[in-house]
Write a structure and sequence with these properties.
single chain; 113 residues; alpha+beta; 1 helix; 31% strand; elongated
Length: 113
Amino acid sequence: MCTGIKKTILFYLFLGAIFSILPVMSWSMLVVQTEVVSGNISNKFADHSIKLDNEKIYRPSRKGLVLDLPVGEPVTLRYMVEDSKNVFFEFAPGLNSLKELEPVHSLKDNIPK
């Protein structure tokens, strides 16, 4: 009976160790690829989505994100593809007004030599 308790305790210690390591390891695997697009606004919709002159529709990433430029104005969007939909989370008036983001490097690239 004593060995059964020891096995149970070891099992729960093992599970605890695994679940405490998982969150630390998983953050490094989460990388979102973003893109930048520029164009003139050709249409605006009630849900605050916009259509650019490239004929693609871009939806805002959150309810409070409202693009306040009129139809016909140039805009640059930073967006990601989510469930085959273009979702923008940053915008700036004008063409090519947002810079590309620096690529994400792994932790091993940041180790001094």
